[in-house]
């Protein structure tokens, strides 16, 4: 799922930085694949964030207040996954801070 999302994003000329638990060969379309622990260093740079991970006990509510606070106010979020990975209360709070 993540590689397919990356392929489509690359088609729009986006710079692709990703995290992956398991080591995989890096496709040419991806600039860098980091460890999940690097997510917080990537978020402040991102104009688009795509979440493409399975729901597991480790990923439940993985993306919450801290992650939203690290994102640019103008960043876009694409959620290509099951519910439960996003902390819904944190999402609602982050959206309430957006000024249109």
Structure description:
- The chain contains 4 helices and 4 strands.
- The model has no long low-confidence stretch (mean pLDDT 92).
- The chain has one domain (2-96): 3-Layer(aba) Sandwich (Rossmann fold), CATH 3.40.50.
- The chain has a two-stranded parallel sheet with strand order 1-2. It has a two-stranded parallel sheet with strand order 3-4.
- It has helices at 2-11, 39-42, 65-70, 88-96; strands spanning 17-19, 32-34, 48-51, 76-79.
- The N and C termini lie far apart (32 Å).
- It has 100 residues and is α/β, with parallel strands linked by helices.
- Helix 3 (65-70) links the parallel strand 3 (48-51) and strand 4.
Mean pLDDT: 92
Give the % helix: 25-40%
Q: Which homologous superfamily in CATH is the superfamily? A: NAD(P)-binding Rossmann-like Domain
Quaternary state of this entry equals single chain
Number of helices: 4
Silhouette: globular
Give the CATH architecture: 3-Layer(aba) Sandwich
Structural class: alpha/beta
Helices and strands in order:
Elements lengths: L1 H10 L5 E3 L12 E3 L4 H4 L5 E4 L13 H6 L5 E4 L8 H9 L4
Parallel strand pairs: 1-2, 3-4
Features:
100 residues, alpha/beta, Rossmann fold, two-stranded parallel sheet, two-stranded parallel ribbon, 4 helices, 4 strands
């Amino acid at each position: 799922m993540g590689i397919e999302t990356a392929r489509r994003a690359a088609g729009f000329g986006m710079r692709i930085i990703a995290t992956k638990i398991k080591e995989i060969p890096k496709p040419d379309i991806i600039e860098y694949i980091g460890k999940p622990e690097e997510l917080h260093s990537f978020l402040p740079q991102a104009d688009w964030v795509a979440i493409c991970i399975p729901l597991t006990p480790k990923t439940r509510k993985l993306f919450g207040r801290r992650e939203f606070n690290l994102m640019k106010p103008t960043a876009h979020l694409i959620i290509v996954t099951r519910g439960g990975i996003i902390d819904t209360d944190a999402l609602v709070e982050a959206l309430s801070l957006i000024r249109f």
